[in-house]
Predict the structure.
Amino acid sequence: MSLTRRAVLIALGLCATAAIARTARAALTWNWHYSAPRIVAGGTFTTTDDADGNGFYQITAISGARNGAKITRLQPTGTPIPGNEPFAVDNLIRASAPQLTKNGFGFATSDGDFANPFYADFRAPPSDLEFFSTPPFTGPGNTEVAVSFTATVPEPETASLMGVALIALVAASRKRR
C-alpha cells in the first residue's frame, strides 16, 4: 500500500473518530473565570450538550476555587445559596453575552462560604455581580459586588481536524517528490 493511500486512510479514520466522539458526547466542559478587587474565582463547568431556546446550557457539575478555597459542590437548581433567600439559582450558562441569567449559578466552598454569580439586568448599565455569603449567612459577611465574568467551551475537534489536514499535506507533498 502506498504512503499516500495509507495517509488518506489514516485521515479518514481520524475524521470518523472525531465525528463519533462529537456524536457520543453527552456533555460539554467549559472553562470559567470571574474576578473583582480581592476576588478571583475559576474552574470548569460540565453542562448538557443541548441549549435551550435562548442558547443556555444547564450546568450539571462544577470544579475550581474561589480565593484559594476549593469549590465543593454546585448549588442545586431551584434553590438559593444560604443567605440569599429567596433568589434561587438556575445554573444556566451560554456562550454569547450575557452569559449568565438573572438567577445565575451557585456553589459552596471548602471554607463553608457560598457564592452566586448572576447577571444584573436591573443595573445601569447591566453587569455581572457576585452575591457572597459566609456563616452565619446574615449581616456584614454577605456582599454583592460587580465582577468580570467569562466562560468558554474549548473545541477539541479543532485539534483533530488540524492533525488530519497536516497528515494530508505531508502525504501530498511526498507524492509530488
Summary: The chain has two domains: 3-24+157-176, 27-152. Helices lie at 3-24, 156-176. The first strand starts at residue 27 and ends at 36.
